[in-house]
Design goal:
- This protein has about 200 residues and is mainly alpha-helical.
- Among the domains are: about 70 residues, no CATH class; about 45 residues, no CATH class.
- Helix content is about 45%, strand content about 5%.
- It contains six helices and four strands, in the order H-H-H-H-H-E-E-E-E-H.
- Strands 1-2 form a two-stranded antiparallel sheet.
- The longest helix is centred in the N-terminal third of the chain and has 32 residues.
- The N and C termini lie far apart (about 175 Å).
Length: about 200
């Protein structure tokens, strides 16, 4: 009563009482909104500094709480964690069945795919030794036990046999004369006079 009479200059006791009750009611609502903002921010924001900033902003009567209600995260932290756990469980269940999705375009891919056939992005790197698909987090190939990122072992290079010199076979024996040359030699031998009894 004395508060309303001193601030507003109200002389009537009834009006002064009503004004004092209204002011007290607004102060109680303001303090309740400050507490509600702090409690709600703790359930929605993971960073403690942002929680205290939201509570400090709500100290501005009513305006701070209204601003917080506009910019606050739409979900509770518990709901976010629950959804993440459900997604991880669903992904583990699908992986157990053998159902995999491309992380870039969500197309269905096989476990052994190195690239997505839909968006053509790289999914896994092949092992440099055995060529099997490797997970990016692996440090060792589980198929051939080669270290991921190490240089592949040197391969044996088979030398090509050089063609043998003309007139000899690879073993060193002389090459037989071609059929045409032998035929020519045979014809040359028959061009002379044949020896034999003459009649």
């Amino acid at each position: 009563m004395f508060l309303s009479a001193g601030i507003f200059g109200i002389k009537n006791s009834t009006v002064s009482l009503v004004v004092s009750l209204i002011v007290l009611f607004l102060v109680v609502i303001w303090l309740a909104l400050v507490y509600w903002t702090w409690a709600d921010a703790r359930r929605r924001i993971a960073d403690p500094m942002l929680v205290y900033c939201a509570a400090a902003a709500s100290l501005f009567p009513f305006a701070g709480t209204i601003v917080y209600m506009i910019v606050r995260p739409p979900e509770y932290l518990e709901d976010v964690r629950e959804r993440e756990l459900e997604m991880q469980a669903a992904e583990a269940q699908l992986a157990g069945v053998g159902y995999h999705l491309c992380p870039h375009c969500d197309a269905e891919v096989e476990k052994e795919f190195l690239r997505c056939p839909n968006c053509m992005r790289k999914l896994k790197d092949p092992c440099r030794t055995c060529g099997k698909p490797l997970d990016p987090s692996w440090k060792l190939c589980p198929f051939c036990e080669a270290e991921v990122g190490s240089a592949p072992p040197p391969r044996r290079v088979r030398r090509r046999r050089e063609p043998a010199a003309e007139g000899t076979i690879a073993g060193g024996s002389p090459e037989p004369a071609p059929a045409s040359r032998s035929g020519e030699a045979g014809l040359a031998g028959t061009t002379g006079y044949e020896s034999g009894p003459t009649s």
